[in-house]
Amino acid sequence: MERYTADQIQVITFEEHLRARPAMYFRVGKDSPELPTDVLQQVVWDALHHGDGAQGVRHIQTLRHSDHIPP
What is the pTM of this model? Predict the structure, then answer.
């Protein structure tokens, strides 16, 4: 069994992890043409359904859009 050391651990941001492994959150791969649709569906679902069971648009919503797609 290989032992790990602290030097082997790489800390990345949530955004970097999401871009590297979108299937963990959206159930489609990063090369899938369905990815933009699934992301939009999740954003809309989250905006309309609160964790406490209440429904409706939240009072403060910020949606950011970026055309930059890393290689």
Answer: 0.51
pLDDT tens digit sequence for 26-69: 888 888 899 888 888 888 888 777 666 666 655 555 666 667 66
With CA atoms as reference, report the closest residue to 23 among 5, 39, 45.
39
Q: How far is CA 65 from the centre of its chain?
A: 13
- Those residues whose C-beta lies under 8 Å from the C-beta of residue 7, and which sit 6 or more positions away, are none
Q: Which pair of tokens denotes residue 59?
A: 């009072």
Where are the domains positioned within the chain?
Answer: 8-71
**Helix and strand totals (H; E) in the chain:** 3, 0
CA 2 to chain centre: 31
Token pair of 44 as six digits: 């809309």
